[in-house]
Design a protein that fits this description.
- By secondary structure, the protein is of the alpha+beta class.
- It has a domain of about 60 residues: Peptidase S8 propeptide/proteinase inhibitor I9 (Alpha-Beta Plaits).
- Helix content is about 25%, strand content about 25%.
- It contains four helices and four strands, in the order E-H-E-E-H-E-H-H.
- Strands 2-3-1-4 form a four-stranded antiparallel beta sheet, covered by helices on one side.
- Strand 2 and strand 3 form a beta hairpin.
- The longest helix is centred in the middle third of the chain and has 9 residues.
- It is elongated.
- It starts with 7 loop residues before the first strand and ends with a helix.
- The mean pLDDT is about 85.
- Its main location: cytoplasm.
- This is UPF0298 protein LC20004_06680.
- Keywords: Cytoplasm.
- Belongs to the UPF0298 family.
- It is found in: Cytoplasm.
Length: about 110
């Protein structure tokens, strides 16, 4: 029997109260809970995301549900370390240095 990884994705469940936290356990693995902001980060199998998000939205203590976009991002940064983006204009790259604030008199002298 070979080990196979099932792709999982995060769901951010915004709730009104954290009292019903145990009820969310049946939908996936609770990874993080924010008591101050009142949200729960829940990991669910990627194939089950549409059905689970609809079921969770119907619960009376849920404010809204957001799907994590992390699986859509390219997380391989090793190839791009130290390289500039080719689509970025040259003037933006050159002006990336420190900003110098000018007074109105200096601007008028510069323009004339």
């Amino acid at each position: 029997m070979a080990f196979t990884m099932t792709p999982r994705q995060g769901l951010v469940v915004w709730v009104y109260s954290l009292k019903q936290l145990r009820q969310l356990r049946r939908y996936g693995t609770i990874y993080y809970t924010s008591r101050r902001l009142k949200y729960v980060y829940l990991y669910v199998d990627q194939a089950m995301i549409p059905t689970v998000s609809e079921q969770v939205k119907k619960l009376h203590f849920v404010r809204r549900v957001e799907v994590s976009h992390r699986p859509e991002l390219d997380m391989n940064f090793g190839e791009r370390v130290g390289q500039l983006d080719k689509s970025e204009p040259a003037d933006v790259r050159e002006s990336a240095g420190p900003k110098i604030l000018l007074t109105s008199k200096e601007i008028l002298k510069k323009d004339s």
